[in-house]
Design brief:
The model has no long low-confidence stretch (mean pLDDT 89). The protein is built from four helices and no strands. By secondary structure, it is mainly alpha-helical. Helix 1 packs parallel to helix 3, helix 2 crosses helix 3 and helix 3 packs antiparallel against helix 4. It starts with 13 loop residues before the first helix and ends in an 11-residue tail after the last helix. The chain has one domain.
Length: 150
């Protein structure tokens, strides 16, 4: 039993908590900045966008980037392995934000909500997860790749 005057059995340096907080901030700040950027663009009655690129492709590209930064935050870095838990958490965040983005547009003059836009968003984030998974395989050190036994 630990009393108020006794030492904890495993004291941690004070800097450990600070480093953890700093790491979390550095992982999640880009997500919040990206979300703010999407919100800003969605709040525009006539957002700046290249007219030659189809709307759904713009959505997919925008959410490809969003999927990358969300995965990076969820997994603790881009070099992390894509696990089912990381993929589910990433997609949950992306889907909820894509839906809220479309609902937000209902209140913006000259904008409408479109379920196909949200689907394009999800496709973009899904491609980002596939890219992270492929990158993990490509970038894996050769000593971590199992060799077939003959």
């Amino acid at each position: 039993m630990i009393t108020p005057n006794s030492q904890s059995p495993n004291p941690k340096p004070a800097t450990n908590g600070l480093l953890t907080t700093l790491k979390r901030f550095l992982l999640w700040a880009p997500v919040l900045v990206y979300m703010a950027g999407i919100f800003y663009l969605s709040a525009q009655s006539s957002p700046p966008a290249p007219s030659r690129i189809p709307d759904k492709l713009q959505h997919a590209v925008e959410y490809f980037g969003f999927g990358l930064v969300v995965f990076r935050a969820v997994a603790g870095g881009l070099g992390s392995r894509v696990t089912a838990a990381h993929a589910k958490a990433t997609m949950l965040i992306v889907i909820v934000y894509a839906i809220s983005d479309e609902l937000h547009q209902l209140f913006v003059p000259l904008r409408t909500a479109d379920v196909r836009d949200a689907l394009a968003d999800v496709v973009g984030a899904s491609i980002a997860l596939i890219a992270c998974w492929a990158w993990h395989i490509i970038a894996a050190p050769r000593d971590r790749i199992p060799t077939p036994k003959s």
